[in-house]
């Protein structure tokens, strides 16, 4: 997280996308740094597009396109950074691939993306969180509930998922989350 905020802290006028839904702390933090913040409640849009069931089929091309229009309908090279948080774990392979491809299009070269993934690959259900930025090196993580992940990732599978990006770095948090910083 610190690497992401070190990238945006010394600049102004950047455009950041937060996929965790709007929280006052995140809005205040990003805008106080002099940046514009767009916010999407990615999981809510996922539920609206595919239904509430964890086992729902996310491979229908028409539903995938509908979801992308609802959640990530932005021009190419629009964002300087994306706070992905933990939302990608709940996407099955076809939708996940489409989302990562769309993210690659809507971020500018050299921008950063920040994502979290559970590190225990044997879990059947995982907590999902609200992430509130306290400062450049502190994040408040509050559990909102639990869900069945569509898939769990190890370092190798994350490298493969983000192979079209310049670099992928991994860190392990206290909450046993794999923190991933992706550079476009």
Characterization of the model:
The protein has a six-stranded mixed sheet with strand order 2-1-3-4-8-7, with helices on both faces. It has a two-stranded antiparallel sheet with strand order 5-6. With 184 residues, it is α/β, with parallel strands linked by helices. The protein has helices at 2-9, 24-32, 42-50, 61-71, 93-106, 155-161; strands spanning 15-18, 36-39, 79-85, 107-118, 126-135, 138-147, 167-172, 177-183. The chain starts with a helix and ends with a strand. The chain has one domain: Vaccinia Virus protein VP39 (Rossmann fold, 3-Layer(aba) Sandwich). Helix 3 (42-50) runs antiparallel to helix 4 (61-71).
What's this model, at a glance?
The chain has 184 residues and is an alpha/beta fold. The chain has helices at residues 2-9, 24-32, 42-50, 61-71, 93-106, 155-161, and strands at residues 15-18, 36-39, 79-85, 107-118, 126-135, 138-147, 167-172, 177-183. A 6-stranded mixed sheet has the order 2-1-3-4-8-7, sandwiched between helices.
Q: What radius of gyration results from the CA coordinates? A: 15 Å
Strand order of the largest sheet: 2-1-3-4-8-7
Sheet of most strands: 6 strands, mixed
At CATH level 2, the architecture is 3-Layer(aba) Sandwich
Q: Going by CATH, what is the homologous superfamily?
A: Vaccinia Virus protein VP39
Question: How many H/I helical runs?
Answer: 6
The secondary-structure class comes to alpha/beta
CATH topology: Rossmann fold
Output the helix-strand order.
HEHEHHEHEEEHEE
- In the predicted model, the low-confidence regions spanning at least 5 consecutive residues are none
Q: Determine the mean pLDDT.
A: 92
């Amino acid at each position: 997280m610190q690497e992401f905020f070190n990238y945006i802290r010394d600049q102004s006028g950047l455009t950041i996308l937060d996929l965790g839904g709007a929280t006052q702390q995140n809005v205040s933090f990003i805008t106080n740094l002099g940046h514009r913040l767009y916010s999407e409640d990615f999981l809510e849009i996922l539920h609206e597009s595919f239904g509430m069931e964890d086992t729902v089929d996310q491979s229908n091309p028409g539903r995938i396109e509908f979801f992308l229009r609802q959640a990530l309908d932005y021009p190419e090279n629009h964002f300087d950074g994306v706070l992905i948080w933990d939302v990608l774990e709940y996407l099955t392979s076809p939708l996940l691939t489409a989302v990562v491809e769309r993210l690659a299009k809507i971020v500018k070269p050299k921008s950063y993306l920040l994502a979290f993934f559970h590190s225990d690959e044997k879990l059947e259900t995982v907590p999902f969180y609200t992430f509130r930025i306290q400062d450049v090196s502190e994040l408040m993580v509050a559990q909102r509930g639990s869900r069945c992940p569509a898939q769990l990732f190890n370092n190798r599978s994350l490298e493969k998922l983000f192979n079209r990006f310049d670099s992928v770095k991994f860190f392990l948090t206290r909450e046993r989350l794999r923190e991933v910083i992706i550079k476009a």
